[in-house]
Design a protein that fits this description.
- The protein has about 325 residues and is α+β, with helices and mostly antiparallel strands.
- The chain is about 35% helix and about 25% strand.
- The protein has ten helices and eleven strands.
- A hairpin with a 4-residue loop joins strand 3 and strand 4.
- The longest helix has 22 residues, at about 55-75.
- The N and C termini lie far apart (about 125 Å).
Length: about 325
């Protein structure tokens, strides 16, 4: 009971607290961990989550096999190629993976309305040079930070042409495209057709040419692939390809049976309404060509062929002499 305060002591304590005579001991608060705030771009996050395109992996599988054979034939040496799965990153991140010197080739695709960017490892380029110009043994080249010479650019163009030819074949079962070499750049900053923020599709191929290893990367802006996404969302099967081929042949056969309206224009003349109303039975109208001039053969209302009038087995006929 000695621990209990009297009323006078309690009043004195409350008075001291109110007028500040007695300091209150502050309870130490635990240190809160420092929180880092990051900006979250929901639009960019959505862009990076691209839809899987299984047909694109199918195309690259076909391409790796055919390109391996074509490159082995071109170099006269055994070439082994392995590919990695397709992935999607920002173009700026892709450029960061490239080292100088590098070789970026722009391949245009006419009916796809876009382009591919094909990057050859410098070691592959110099190995190809040694093989093409008669090197007896392929060794790891000494890579120098210099521009490619005209002869070296010629060999690079040959590699790009082989790439274009084999890529066309690989795409044929899915979507027919036409590839054409446009130009080469040594510095990635000179390829400005793709914005830094744009998402691109990347597929890397690892090369092994005897005792030298290298790589090749194919970069395609996702916006180009999105225009034909319906063709790329399912992998074509052999049965599907056979059925598609049969349908194409059947459609060609049916198209060949479509009737055409063919007319021959003997001549033309522009006259006034007054002269037309004044024309009688014996009126002679001069046209724009003579009897011996070739005539236009009209198909579907358009001049397509040139011919000459004549008679065959007692009937009037037209002999085709050429196209317009």
């Amino acid at each position: 009971m000695d621990q209990v305060l009297s009323q006078e002591e309690i009043d004195a304590l409350l008075s001291g607290l109110s007028d500040g005579a007695i300091e209150i001991e502050q309870k130490a608060e635990p240190d809160e961990p420092k929180q880092e705030v990051r900006t979250f771009d929901i639009l960019q996050f959505t862009k990076s989550k691209k839809e899987n395109l299984p047909a694109l992996q199918f195309i690259y599988d076909r391409f790796s096999k055919s390109f391996q054979s074509a490159l082995s034939l071109f170099l006269g040496r055994d070439v082994e190629i392995e590919q990695t799965p397709v992935h999607y990153i920002e173009y700026r991140e892709f450029v960061k993976t490239l080292s100088l010197p590098t070789n970026m080739n722009v391949i245009t695709t006419e009916n796809l309305n876009g382009f591919f960017i094909v990057v050859f490892d410098a070691k592959i380029v110099f190995c190809a040079l040694e093989s093409v110009f008669g090197g007896s043994d392929v060794s790891a080249p000494r890579i120098e930070g210099r521009e490619f010479t005209k002869i070296e650019l010629y060999v690079i163009k040959k590699l790009a042409d082989i790439f274009s030819n084999e890529m066309e074949k690989a795409w044929t079962p899915v979507y027919r495209i036409t590839c054409k070499y446009s130009r080469s750049e040594m510095n990635p900053n000179y390829v400005t057709m793709v914005s830094q923020e744009e998402i691109v599709s990347i597929c890397q191929f690892s090369f092994n040419i005897e005792n030298v290893s290298g790589w090749m990367k194919i970069c395609i802006p996702y916006g180009i692939l999105e225009t034909i996404k319906d063709y790329l969302t399912s992998t074509p099967s052999r049965e599907g390809l056979e059925m598609r081929h049969k349908w194409i042949e059947k459609m060609k056969e049916e198209v060949m049976n479509v009737p055409l309206d063919i007319r021959v224009t003997l001549g033309k003349k522009r006259i006034s309404l007054k002269d037309f109303l004044g024309a009688k039975e014996d009126t002679i109208i001069m046209v724009d060509r003579s009897v011996n001039d070739p005539v236009d053969i009209m198909i579907g209302g358009k001049a397509k062929l040139k011919g000459r009038l004549g008679i065959l087995k007692g009937s009037k006929a037209v002999q085709i002499e050429g196209t317009i």
